[in-house]
Design a protein that fits this description.
Elements: E1 10-16, E2 28-34, E3 37-46, H1 53-69, E4 72-78, H2 113-125, E5 131-136, E6 142-151, H3 156-167, E7 173-177, H4 188-194, E8 199-206, H5 212-228, E9 244-246, E10 248-253, E11 258-262, E12 269-270, E13 275-280, E14 286-291, E15 296-302, E16 306-307, E17 312-318
Parallel strand pairs: 3-4, 3-5, 5-8, 6-7, 7-9
Antiparallel strand pairs: 1-2, 2-4, 6-8, 6-15, 10-17, 11-13, 11-16, 12-15, 13-14, 15-17
Helix pairs in contact: 1-5
The chain binds zinc ion.
Length: 323
């Protein structure tokens, strides 16, 4: 990175209100950084899941980095999107409607709070953004690999850009979402893809803790995206490793209540049928051996030993079918 301070970059912090009456009374803190030279517009948000604090911490560091390093264009940074979740430290959901905003995009202005917020984020705050970046990872009971998600729409020119944005984070794993998955509500990047707009989506972190490696992954990934867009100068990247590129995302549930012992960690390779966890009752009898659903990599795992039948234990990425 250039250490040179850019003179004349203005930073303004505002409280953003949205038009939907469903969102009335709420104000989102947004930091806007503008270079003197015009250029692309980049929007960055975190805190759709408020315990995924490495991404939130990265946004604070990015305000200062862009103030110093932005050469052209404008950056808008929203540290916490899911404001109603803050006082409750809600896991996964927005407490107003108990919905997961992360799977509510593109949303609807006349929908529930989560749906109205998803719509407002896409169609008001980030409507004219050249890229929207959404930072996640590490809710209270999960450990997440450093991975990114890249929606594919079936147009190579568009898809290559989305893949390059995902690769700019230098992740362990890139999950390519297939075009047929865009028909149902999804992540912000999927909502953007339905509009033929670019986005990046990054996950890293564990257990509601701020760890430097995850913060760095988010922060430096955003800066490399800004470099790709020509907004800052970045040094030539030399990734530590090639990412594992996946075309399928599998969710693995516990299926029984009990005490779970996990035997693989995020980022590890697994083969189909490999036992990746065992669930016992409280007398020590094994109730279920949990098998990997496919050859691939572990995206994340639950970190709590106490599980219910409906608990999501693992995300596993597999090469699957090519887009
Ligand atoms: Zn999340």
């Amino acid at each position: 990175m250039s250490g040179e301070r850019r003179e004349g970059n203005s930073v303004s912090t505002r409280l953003l209100k949205f038009r939907s009456p469903v969102l009335a009374g709420w104000e989102w803190t947004v930091h806007d950084i503008a270079a003197q030279e015009p250029g692309p517009h980049l929007c960055i948000m975190a805190g759709i899941h408020v315990n995924e604090v490495a991404g939130i911490e990265a946004t604070f560091q990015l305000v200062e980095r862009f103030q110093n390093e932005l050469r052209r264009g404008t950056v808008s940074i929203m540290p916490v999107a899911n404001l109603p979740a803050l006082p409750y430290r809600s896991q996964h959901v927005c407490p107003i409607d108990d919905k997961n905003i992360n799977f509510s995009f593109p949303g609807a202005s006349d929908g529930t709070f989560s749906e109205a917020l998803a719509d407002a984020l896409l169609n008001e705050w980030a409507a004219d953004a050249d890229c929207l970046i959404d930072l996640h990872g590490g809710d209270l009971c999960e450990n997440v690999a450093r991975f990114t998600v890249a929606p594919m729409i079936g147009d190579p020119a568009f898809d290559d850009v989305n893949f390059a944005l995902a690769a700019a984070f230098e992740p362990e794993i890139i999950v390519k979402l297939q075009p047929d998955q865009l028909n149902k509500p999804g992540r912000s990047c999927s909502g953007r893809a339905r509009q033929r707009k670019h986005a990046a989506f990054a996950e890293a972190g564990a257990n509601g803790l701020i760890d430097e490696r995850s913060v760095r992954f988010h922060r430096d990934g955003v800066l490399r995206v800004a470099g790709l867009l020509g907004m800052i100068e970045t040094e030539k990247a030399t990734p530590e490793h090639e990412p594992f590129v996946a075309n399928e995302y599998h969710w693995v549930q516990a299926e029984v209540d009990g005490w779970c012992s996990y035997s693989v960690e995020p980022g590890e390779s697994v083969v189909s049928g490999q036992v990746i966890a065992a669930i016992s009752d409280y007398s020590g009898n094994i109730l279920r051996r949990v098998a990997a659903p496919a050859d691939g990599r572990v995206l994340w795992r639950c970190t709590h030993a106490v599980v219910e039948a409906t608990t999501d234990l693992f995300g596993v990425a597999s090469a699957g079918k090519q887009s």
